[in-house]
């Protein structure tokens, strides 16, 4: 029998199409990024303006009509308790109950259903206007992410869902801070750890465009500013280095106290079993804390830190320390009893008060250095995000000469907070690490 002839060689594989040039991939993303950034800023602006108008009614028009002091202890307790009751009742009525438990959410999470967004924005307005010690960043980001994801998947189904999440998050964060740099820094910590095609800056390109659009929209309409107009820093000295290390570490320790109290407070309010009861009780506690720390410890804290900065000698070291502790406690209570809101802005107020406390104790410590280092430390503990903590601390004083000391102060503060629990719980109520 003749031997079998050898099989013919397999044909070579068809050549894969060459990847699209980066420019051709990135240019089509510019217009969607700009649109998402502008819309995110407008939603933030609308919610903020509505909350401010309602705040004027609740804290000025109504107490004046009743002949009650605007920020008397009685009015603070009554208003915060009523705010808790109103938010609790609203959450019972709105679709989706305002989203997941806020103690389990971070700044940027997976998209929620769009039907949840109206109720989430409603209870956010109520909390901001009622004096709750939370900022707008978490719920506004969640709402914008949900809308962008839903509309993006509807009108551009071929685009990856992660793109719309990144664009909405960047647009919102850019609008919140008035600069796209904040969005780039926050997203860089996420994007750097994610596999994906393209260089890092290619992946950051579209979110940076959205952040720029959001920041410019907010700046052109509302002109936000984080600068506290503190005395200019004269330059680093050896004594300032020691002060920076100690103050940042003290801020980190204050933040860690709130972090460790977080799951305990959550269990206490969860034991009440009914959201309306938990929120009403939380509002009562917030009112009592406001009566203890003064009216400056109410609200998100961004306007209130400017009051402190306008008269840094108007309070004693003990009073500054008391405001820092009360604000940290109010942040913990508000974020665990069911109010929807963010933790960055209240933590900034606690850090600013702690910084002024350090300056009041040791007059030789420049207020710019003390404030920026204290804010850096407490934000590292609360957010566990190094770039956003460093950036926020720097923009408060708008002085590049403090940056070397801030970078040095980051080191001991980070050693204190790394590996510790985060100010966020998992689905079982246990702290994330």
UniProtKB/TrEMBL annotation:
The keyword DNA damage does not apply. It comes from the Bacteria. One of its GO terms (molecular function) is chloride transmembrane transporter activity. The chain crosses the membrane at residues 26-51, 71-94, 163-188, 200-221, 241-264, 276-298, 318-337, 344-362, 368-383, 390-415. It is a multi-pass membrane protein. Residues 1-20 are annotated as: Disordered. Its main location: membrane. Keywords: Membrane, Transmembrane, Transmembrane helix. It is found in: Membrane. Signal peptide: none annotated. GO terms for cellular component: plasma membrane. This is Ion channel protein. It comes from Streptomyces violaceoruber.
């Amino acid at each position: 029998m003749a031997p079998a002839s050898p099989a013919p060689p397999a044909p070579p594989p068809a050549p894969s199409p060459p990847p699209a040039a980066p420019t051709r991939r990135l240019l089509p993303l510019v217009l969607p990024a700009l649109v998402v950034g502008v819309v995110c800023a407008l939603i933030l602006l609308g919610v903020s303006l509505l909350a401010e108008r309602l705040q004027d009614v609740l804290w000025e028009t109504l107490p004046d009509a009743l002949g009650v002091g605007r920020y008397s202890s009685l009015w603070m307790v009554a208003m915060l308790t009523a705010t808790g009751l109103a938010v609790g009742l609203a959450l019972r009525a709105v679709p989706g109950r305002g989203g997941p438990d806020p103690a389990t959410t971070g700044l940027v999470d997976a998209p929620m259903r769009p039907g949840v967004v109206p109720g989430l924005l409603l209870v956010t307005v109520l909390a901001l206007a009622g004096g709750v010690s939370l900022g707008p960043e978490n719920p506004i980001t969640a709402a914008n992410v949900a809308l962008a994801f839903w509309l993006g998947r509807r009108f551009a189904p071929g685009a990856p869902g992660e793109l719309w999440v990144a664009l909405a998050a960047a647009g919102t964060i850019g609008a919140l801070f008035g600069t796209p740099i904040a969005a780039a820094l926050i997203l860089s910590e996420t994007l750097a750890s994610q596999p994906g095609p393209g260089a890092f800056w290619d992946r950051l390109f579209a979110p940076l465009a959205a952040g720029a659009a959001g920041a410019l929209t907010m700046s052109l309409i509302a002109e936000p500013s984080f600068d506290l107009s503190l005395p200019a820093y004269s330059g680093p000295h050896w004594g300032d280095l020691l002060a920076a290390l100690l103050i940042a570490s003290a801020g980190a320790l204050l933040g860690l106290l709130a972090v460790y109290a977080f799951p305990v407070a959550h269990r206490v309010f969860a034991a009440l079993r009914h959201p309306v009861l938990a929120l009403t009780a939380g509002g009562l506690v917030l009112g009592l804390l406001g009566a203890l720390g003064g009216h400056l410890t109410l609200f998100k804290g961004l306007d209130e830190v400017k009051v402190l900065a306008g008269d840094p000698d108007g309070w004693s070291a003990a009073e500054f320390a008391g405001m820092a502790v009360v604000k940290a406690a109010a942040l913990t209570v508000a974020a665990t009893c069911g109010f929807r809101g963010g933790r960055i802005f209240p933590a900034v107020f606690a850090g600013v008060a702690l910084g002024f406390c350090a300056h009041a104790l040791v007059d030789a410590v420049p207020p710019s250095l003390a404030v920026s280092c204290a804010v850096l430390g407490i934000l590292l503990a609360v957010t566990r995000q190094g770039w956003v903590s460093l950036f926020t601390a720097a923009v408060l004083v708008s002085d590049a000469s403090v940056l070397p000391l801030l970078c040095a102060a980051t080191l001991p503060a980070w050693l204190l907070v790394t590996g510790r629990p985060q100010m966020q719980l998992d689905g079982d109520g246990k702290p994330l690490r």
